[in-house]
């Protein structure tokens, strides 16, 4: 008989150790090592020792047919996946508890089942009656989705192998699955890895597309070993704040499509509603005429998105001022603040700084630098920015405004929503940037010019904004003094 091999496996990264220790040396996490039996179920002495078979080698030249895709019936979901689900592909969907993962998959599978495809939904966390209640609440109880509550991978594979091969299989969730090939408890690293590997083999062999639902940790990362993310073909992240109705579906990894596309949904009483124009939704509750707000014209994949950046700069009595940001990179905010103080004379060392991206969207591109700087200076000097203007441009460490990609698409989206002006980098004025967009372009070469224009607006507000203006910009940037 094979001897049991016990080791301590990190539940965060999957690293194995022969003795327990408080900190994992691989990922740096504390108290994540758990004792598991890592021995295989089949002894090495009786394993098959067959010789490998030969296979044909092909050249790089030649035509390869496009992978056939299966549309989900939801435009936003197809946008993120690259046009639909590829046969034999495996997708991993992660998100916070209660964010709407099961609701999204229930709606998608119901639409595909109504289109005549065989769809199977395997629930490992909820009973069949609970899934039926959700479908009834969404008005999808009449969809011919085949449903089961099962956690054994061997039983699932055996059942799905009978009859016609399903076009799509949903496993909710992979942390609840277990296989007989390993002796660890469900949810451990060994079980998650082995269960995912068995399901991936079934998908590649039969051509069925499989969606695995994964839990997330406190940091927002998908729980379990990171090797599972490397095993699957695509990793989708379902993001959003529980207090807001907006939901963002983002592709973190995609072998068959882009990774910079997003799908926008709105959570309603009848489920998730697709948002075809996210810019209008993000700006629907915009507070006009308030200092410290600027509209950023961004790009998410191939889609232009307009979103409001809100900034608050307030005096502080603390020795170390607060720097809080939601929806943007913390280090990017620190860089913009450093450039404002070093090259523009904006003294922020005695102020708390808060920056927020309205609507729950997270911005990753550096083109938001100019909009963030405009909102910060506007809040500091208590100056209202033009309500019909959009901002975009990257700020370099020297204070120069650098050009960004896809300027025409940003301007067209601004015109569509009724904006009249655009503040953009100087190098973007030429070519087809402005063209027939119908906008009044304000091209800026350096950040000092933008600060001077905003500070001049603050000076017109009277004595109330005079102290902020003096603190915000030195004399060389004031209008009328050269």
Automatic annotation (TrEMBL):
SUPFAM superfamilies in UniProt: P-loop containing nucleoside triphosphate hydrolases (SSF52540), Ribosomal protein S5 domain 2-like (SSF54211)
Region feature Disordered, mapped onto this chain: 457-482
Location of region: Lon-protease-like: 352-482
Superkingdom of the source species: Bacteria
Database matches in InterPro entries: AAA+_ATPase (IPR003593), DNA_repair_RadA (IPR004504), P-loop_NTPase (IPR027417), RecA_ATP-bd (IPR020588), Ribosomal_Su5_D2-typ_SF (IPR020568), Ribsml_uS5_D2-typ_fold_subgr (IPR014721), Rubredoxin_2 (IPR041166)
SMART domains registered for this protein in UniProt: AAA
Binding site for ATP: 95-102
Entry-linked CDD domains: RadA_SMS_N
Pfam family of the protein (one): AAA_25
Domain named RecA family profile: residues: 66-216
Motif RadA KNRFG motif: where in chain: 253-257
Keywords for this protein: ATP-binding, DNA damage, DNA repair, DNA-binding, Hydrolase, Metal-binding, Nucleotide-binding, Stress response, Zinc, Zinc-finger
NCBIfam families cross-referenced by the UniProt entry: sms (TIGR00416)
Domain-related comment: The middle region has homology to RecA with ATPase motifs including the RadA KNRFG motif, while the C-terminus is homologous to Lon protease.
Family designation: Belongs to the RecA family. RadA subfamily.
Function: Plays a role in repairing double-strand DNA breaks, probably involving stabilizing or processing branched DNA or blocked replication forks.
Protein's recorded name: DNA repair protein RadA
Organism of origin: Bradyrhizobium japonicum
Gene designation: radA
